[in-house]
Specification:
The chain has helices at residues 33-39, 61-71, 83-96, and strands at residues 5-12, 19-23, 42-50, 74-76. By secondary structure, the protein is α+β, with helices and mostly antiparallel strands. It has one domain (5-96): NE1680-like fold, CATH 3.10.510.
Length: 97
């Protein structure tokens, strides 16, 4: 794994809160067909220099860099939202207290 990598981050045109991290020079056509199919058209979000110790919203620089080294990309999917019902019930309980 490199100490630092210049990466581009793209937002999915098909799926909310889905982002793809790739090397800055990565060609879209060279990524797996299945990934391109589910991701849709990439919408450029940002470029950044990523280091292993950098903290990101849902992951770490180390995890992203390892995935890029292994697969040429890191796919960040939305967090599971199973807690909606639990949170709703908790809010109701708090109001009733």
């Amino acid at each position: 794994m490199k100490e630092r990598e210049f990466v581009s981050v793209f937002r999915s045109s098909k799926k909310n809160d889905t982002y793809l991290f790739v090397r800055r020079e990565q060609k879209w056509e060279d990524l797996p067909d299945s990934l391109r199919g589910i991701f849709g058209n990439p919408v450029h979000s940002m470029d950044l220099v990523l280091t292993p110790d950098r903290k990101l919203a849902r992951t770490t620089g180390k995890q992203v860099l390892e995935a890029i080294e292994e697969k040429d990309f890191f796919l960040q999917m939305p967090e599971e939202q199973e807690s909606y019902v639990v949170d709703f019930n908790r809010k109701l309980d708090q109001r009733n207290s």
